[in-house]
Amino acid sequence: MGMFFSFRSWALWRVVGPLLAIVLLLGGLSAGSLQVMSAVRAYVAGESMWSKGQKDAIHDLQTYVSTGAPLYLQKFDAAIAVPLADRTARRALESPGNNDAVARAGFARAGNHDDDIGGLIWLFKYFRKMHHVAGAVTAWRNSDALLDQLIEIRNEAANDVALHDPSAATIRHWAERIGVVDAALSTLAVDFSDHLGKASRQVSALLLLVNLVIAACLAGIVLVHTRRMLWRRWLAETALAVEKERAQLTLASIGDAVIVMTQDDRVDYMNTAAQRLIAAGQEVTGRPLASLFNIAEQPVRGSFDADDESRPQLLVRPDHSSVPVSVVETPIVHAGEPAGRVMIIHDMTAERRLVEELAWAASHDALTGLANRRQFEFELHKAMSGSPAMGADLMLIDLDQFKIVNDTCGHMAGDRLLKQVARLLAAEVGGSGLVARLGGDEFGILLHEDGSATHDVAADVAERIRAVIEQSNFVYEGSSFRISASIGLVGLADSAGVQDALRLADVACFLAKDKGRNRVQEHRPSDTGMAVRVA
Predict the structure, then answer these.
(1) pLDDT tens, 72-127?
(2) Which H or E run includes 356?
(3) What SS3 class is residue 443?
(4) Catalytic residue among 56, 441, 500, 527
(5) Which residues cross the membrane (predicted)?
(6) What is the pTM of this model?
(7) Distance from C-alpha of 500 to C-alpha of 336, rounded to nearest angstrom
(8) Which of 5, 481, 511, 533 is the most exposed place for a label (fewest CB within 10 A)?
């Protein structure tokens, strides 16, 4: 799984950029402050060596005029070389053009550390006009003439023969001249040191002020940036809450059950319709889905011709109650990895009831509730397509007095008669066959044989049916009618197909009517009368 943000993401830099800039600015400010303070410290150290060089040079020169020893002249030259080298460096920096190399060499000869020389040059260039720094530089510059006087005294003293064996008067003369220069240099050295100390304190105060101002500005920037981030976060969280509430209201208003599951098939969310559907009376979040219900297959009832495609799914609850449903599942994928799934369950109770009613209506007679001609022919075809060992017989039944009842008492009486006969036939046949109304006052019966029964059994059933109909009495609005039926019986083994079986049964039924009605006529291939009718 990759990072949520790429380093090239503009959104990432919008958040991190200002904070990173603040850190870098503070780091740069700290580094600059350290550089300034380091340069000030280098100047203090350099001033110390500068003052010491002057003091040593005056002391050596005074010793020379007191003793006349040439060694002290050499010491004087070595000591005076320090302030002279500093003067060379300062003059190089004050001259136009880039003379940093000359200044660096001068500061090095004056004994300054190599790491401090860069700070000395930088501070002189950029801070020499600062009030106290300018005062220190002025004192430094005013010492140039005194150094020249001191060198001139040294040269004169070196050429004075009287100093080879000096008298008290000679020593006093030279000491007075040296003392005047010493007093002036001491005053300038104090002035230089005083200005340099004040400059150090001024620079420190200025840096502290700048640091405080910048820190305050940075704190303000951080505060504004943080407030903006918090405001955006609040807006995002508010928008998310609104969208979540809208989604929950939308899901709650959906009539279908919506269930969101985690990757391990535990319930993460369930809308109100889903809670009603599975009859969940307690908190279901986090529970395994299998503990709430399971999905099974269930065929559609009401049709003799149900196939696998008309089998909706069945939601079975823990209490074994069930609801017909249709289920649609959609996987949840996050960053290319499965994160769960969404299950939408539609309650198919109404649709299934309608399908069953339509299936029943398509295969049954609306008046009597028996199978209709379409279903009867389907079952007849299925029986004739089966194993020859499982024989079957076909009966066609035609009511003899139906037209009299229908014409005398009306269609309502005729319909009632048909219902009465249908009940008689269904009760007599039971589960041994299929009873159907083929149209008008014509009924059909398909008797199934189990292999041990014979055609004579079918003949006995047909005779029993005839007798039951004859013995029944139809009464309508005070009028009583005797009814009877003519029955044609055909063994399916004697027919070449569905239409042939129906034709033979119809001919047999016609012969029963022709022979006086209220009788059973079996189809026999050897019957000449039947053969004539069939032909």
Answers:
(1) 889 999 999 999 999 998 898 888 888 889 989 988 998 888 888 888 888 888 87
(2) helix 349-363
(3) strand
(4) 441
(5) 203-224
(6) 0.49
(7) 65
(8) 5
Q: Which amino acid is at 522?
A: E
Concatenating the DSSP letter of every residue in 224-293 gives HHHHHHHHHHHHHHHHHHHHHHHHHHHHHH-SSEEEEE-TTSBEEEE-HHHHHHTT--S--TTSBGGGT-
Three-state secondary structure call for residue 36: helix
Distance CA 383, CA 450 (A): 12
Can you tell me whether residue 492 is helix, strand or coil? helix
CA distance 157 to 151: 10
Give SS3 for 145: helix
Q: How far apart are CA 144 and CA 136, in angstroms?
A: 13
Helix (H, G, I), strand (E, B) or coil at 460: helix
- What is the distance, to the nearest Å, from the Cα of residue 508 to the centroid of all Cα atoms in its chain? 77
* CA pair distance 400, 414, nearest whole angstrom: 12
| Neighbour tally for 60: CB within 10 Å | 20
Assess contact for 486 and 509: CB atoms under 8 A.
Answer: yes
The residues, any chain, with a CB within 8 Å of residue 153's CB and separated by 6 or more, are 61, 174, 177, 178, 181
Q: At what angle do helices 411-429 and 455-471 cross, to 10 degrees?
A: 140
Which pair of structure tokens corresponds to residue 332? 């949840």
Give Cβ neighbours of residue 353 (< 8 Å, ≥ 6 apart).
none
Q: Who contacts 499 (Cβ-Cβ below 8 Å, separation ≥6)?
A: none
Cβ-based neighbour number of residue 202 at 10 Å: 17
Per-residue model confidence as pLDDT tens digits over 445-477 = 998 865 545 567 888 888 999 999 989 888 888
* Token pair for 371: 């199978």
> What is the phi-psi region of residue 531: left when phi exceeds 0, alpha when psi lies from -120 to 50, beta otherwise?
alpha
